[in-house]
Amino acid sequence: MIVAKGGTIIFEQYNGTGHIPGTDSINTHSPLHIASITKTFTAMAVLKLWQDSLLHIDDEFSKYFPAFNYAGLTIRNLLSHRSGLPNYNYFMEKLGWDKSRYISNADVLDSLIARKDVLEDISTPNTRFNYCNTNYALLALIIEKVSGITYAEYLDKTFFKPLKMHNSYVFKMADTGTALPSYNWRGGLEPFNYLDQVYGDKNIYSTPRDLLIWDQALSGNGLFTNETLEQAYTPYSNERPGIRNYGLGWRMNIIPDGNTQGSVNKIIYHNGWWHGSNATLIRLLKEQATIIVIGNRFTRSVYHAKDLISVFGKYYIPADEEEAGSITETVFPDASIPVKDAQGSRKLNRANKRSDNKAN
Q: What is the pTM (predicted TM-score) of this model?
């Protein structure tokens, strides 16, 4: 776990072991599966290709894959989860996929094309937000098509090496002997399954310190232009009123700023959960604060990291949101423990206690 202000670490702690049972203590150099936080890298890779004039985010996906038979579906629709496509996590099984074989990203695309007539839950693009891993599996293919190299190579060349994220990589099955495994909440090993070779929506392993480097790269150090960052942090799911929204690869909460009447603030974040690994990356842009937690033994306490946001500023929600639950439950639907008004030091201590005996 890391809490930082302006890129400077103000709280850092690691607990637990990479293996259960084991003696390999989790430390600053222990990469763990960040699950859907991977989507932030995929989205920013696509936006980097757009920034470099190698694609346009309003291009139709079929421009790059002509056999793709879903008219009007754009790269922007995929980035913002407004594609109308079904989730491969479910439809591949419904189509009768042999679970003894790993699914690839190309298999997802081919199944969408060849079996469109029997697929369910397809809707017209850009009519509604629907969080869907299929979108980011397809975006990984776009990155490969346009760059001419693999998704892993592109991220390594464009992000990991230039930013010196030395403990970050895209998982491949060849890494099964060295990658730290994940465990359920009881401590039981979570085995790989037929979905584990699909990437773009998941499959990046990283550390809190490397994710802090990533956070700083997203704060205007020259890797991305202001225009690119504005695209990423613009809310696109506005058909439902409220504070929750989604940009291009980023969840966000747009809420009134308790310090200034009439002003608003954005909490930019993404959570992740795959098998027994879960993670959260929370970014308070105005306060330049960052909260990062990664674990390889599932615990919902990882998502309680959002309790720390009020350490850095006063955040309030409109009256019409109050009925939906407490501030933490409304702002972060993964939450189950409301904390509205404790002092910052108390919150840091509680976060510390909750992380005891966990591989965070």
A: 0.88
